[in-house]
């Protein structure tokens, strides 16, 4: 994570940090998959020029969103992409679980509650990060 006031300064800081990381991984005899590296510009500014970063000779351009630890982080910090992704996943799960239930005679309330709790958990996963006043525990 890097912070700067203009594009050139941001590129300088980030590229220096990425170079240090690349050199360290090489010294530890680890391979960094530079072609898989992703970056997102987290800002609410409009009309900014997208920076380009470099790692191990690979150029990395910023994307509108990246997936990190199960969360879609978008550039505007609005979680719209995350909501759409999780909503689609929960819908698929609900459809798959509804096909499991017996067609004749229905299912018991406890079974329906159990299956709906799976979808509910998928929808609320990572929800605490949206609350700005969540205490650190």
Topology:
Blueprint: H1 7-27, E1 39-40, E2 52-55, E3 58-63, E4 65-68, E5 71-74, H2 80-100, H3 109-124
DSSP summary, beta strand count: 5
Unreliable runs, pLDDT <50, ≥5 residues? none
Overall outline: elongated
Assembly type of the shown chains? single chain
Which labels suit this protein?
3-stranded mixed beta sheet, single chain, 3 helices, 137 residues, alpha+beta, two-stranded antiparallel sheet
Task: Give your account of this protein's structure.
This protein starts with 6 loop residues before the first helix and ends in a 13-residue tail after the last helix. The chain has three helices and five strands; from the N terminus they run H-E-E-E-E-E-H-H. A three-stranded mixed beta sheet has the order 1-3-2. The chain has a two-stranded antiparallel sheet with strand order 4-5. The chain has helices spanning 7-27, 80-100, 109-124, and strands spanning 39-40, 52-55, 58-63, 65-68, 71-74. Helix 2 (80-100) packs antiparallel against helix 3 (109-124). It is of the alpha+beta class. 42% of the residues lie in helices and 15% in strands.
Compact overview of the structure:
It contains three helices and five strands, in the order αβββββαα.
């Amino acid at each position: 994570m890097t912070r700067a006031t203009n594009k050139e300064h941001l590129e300088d800081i980030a590229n220096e940090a990425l170079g240090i990381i690349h050199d360290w991984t090489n010294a530890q005899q680890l391979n960094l998959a530079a072609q898989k590296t992703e970056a997102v510009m987290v800002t609410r500014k409009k009309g900014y020029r997208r920076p380009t970063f470099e790692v191990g000779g690979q150029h990395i351009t910023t994307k509108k969103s990246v997936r990190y630890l199960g969360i879609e982080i978008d550039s505007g910090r609005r979680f719209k992409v995350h909501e759409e992704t999780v909503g689609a996943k929960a819908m698929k799960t609900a459809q798959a679980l509804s096909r499991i239930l017996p067609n004749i005679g229905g299912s018991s309330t406890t079974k329906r509650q159990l299956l709906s709790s799976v979808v509910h958990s998928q929808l609320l996963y990572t929800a605490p990060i949206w609350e700005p006043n969540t205490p650190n525990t």
